[in-house]
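Deliverable D5.2: sample structural annotation.
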Amino acid sequence: MKKIEGFKMRQLGSEYIVLPESSKLVNFNKMISFNSSAAYLWEAVGDKEFSVEDLAKLLLDKYDVDPQTAGKDAGKIAESWINAGIVEK
């Protein structure tokens, strides 16, 4: 997977939102918000390609979770990013 170019994350209070830099990317039907874990992953992968396994490893490195939970959570996050149109497979 890889982030689709043109989206930037911004902090809004205790939440994080992903906003398009161009009006061509705007879909006003949905707002993309992250919790702190998803924001950490978004920043950690940068502009490079990544997999669900990469996301799970990042979660394991930062949080006190078991590998099964990290894998499950990483899969959900990746799926939500794909469905939101901010990453591509």
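Annotation notes: The beta strands are 2-3, 7-12, 15-20, 32-34, 87-88. The chain has a mean pLDDT of 90.
The annotation will be released with the project's public dataset once the embargo ends.
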